Description:
The protein is of the alpha+beta class.
Amino acid sequence: MTRRGMKTTIGYYLLAGCTATLVATPVLAAPWVRGYVVDKYEPAFYYGAKSGTMNPGSDCPKGTNPDNNYNVTLMTSWRSDAEIEDILRSATLQVNGKFNTRREQRLSAALRYRGFRRDIDSWVNPFTAPDPGTQEITGKIAEGFDLDHNPKTGFSSPSGEMGIDNNLYRVMGCNMSYRGVPYSAYLSTRGNDKMLEGLYTIVVRISGNNDPMNDDDATVEIAYSPDHIVKNSVGVIPDYSYRIVKSAQYTRLKAKIRDGVVETEQVPELRLPEFAWFENNRGEALFYNGRMRLTIDGEGSLRGLLGGYRDWRDIYGKDTFDTSSSAGTRETYYRENQIGKYYAFKRNADGVPDPKTGKNIGISAAYRFTAIPAYVVDPVKPAAVNEPVTSRVPGVYRALFLKAEMTKAIIPDPARKAGEYEGDGDPKDVSPQDQPDSSKVVANNTTRIPSD
């Protein structure tokens, strides 16, 4: 539930019981608190072109990643040219009295099987397919932080700071759906539209004991709120109250403020809501060794940058297995290649070594956001996260991929309940000539791929 608040001349003051009152005389050297609700949020991918999604720029000299050549992508040692031609033929082209009316479903499902054997689900077991390559960022500029405290590694920031670590940008920044000036890329506009429609809400609260613009002992909280963002035809309306959740998707950090720039400490785990555009890919985002930088502008609004190391396996799992917008959509509409992305993630993982293998499971990343003034309140009864309403299938496949990646054992497709639907790329959409031979399905996950 939200309530209309009142704005003071110097900030936003919160009193016990979630009530706000107008302070008649500004007090600069006293306990203070300011709250905000996020109105824009996206991965911080620096755009090196002047305009447009496809245009070349300093970030991507060749422009956006080209569309997949399906004649090449579908080519395996066991799939014939005739099979590929039949999968790709026009939906209006009649062969043997039949139209290819389910072309898109057949294509997505066939893309799922391109390992070295017909029965292998290559999205679950991507290491069984060769690396097709992908265009990575070759520019020298990126947003983010020097997470490893080594100015000789990484990018330089737009302001000239050296050692910026943002390899998530290196891997995904040339993808069509992420290119554009800030908050204009396709998935950014879609994600922010869904956030403003009520998919999830992020709040920020900053407090201290001195001056809101200069304080050596400040605290920053970033969290999920169960309250929908209040907006009108113009945008988000300021000064409403939002409850804060502290049980999950929540982080509290110590910070210092200099001339309105808030620098937080670097903490082992920074947790907050995930950048999402659909019910099945929202949830918690975890940044290892995370930190934030916030800038309070003259109008009281906020600009934020946060960074840390994400588990690239978690990103791949959420990106690949979804109910509505999964790998089939990525590889047809979004001009992406999940197998190429998998190898690029592994190649560019630059932090958080696995204790058992010593290989990095973390990939450096940065996200940016803007926020407007709001009252962030502690409810009398602790609030909780509204967990995503989803089928069990995406989670099952994400778990199977993680198991395959950790063990290098080829994992077969799981048993499916009657009528259970996953979305594009669903194995049930494989055409008869592409149907995996059940007699060859690996039993007990005993087949292994040599470790890389």
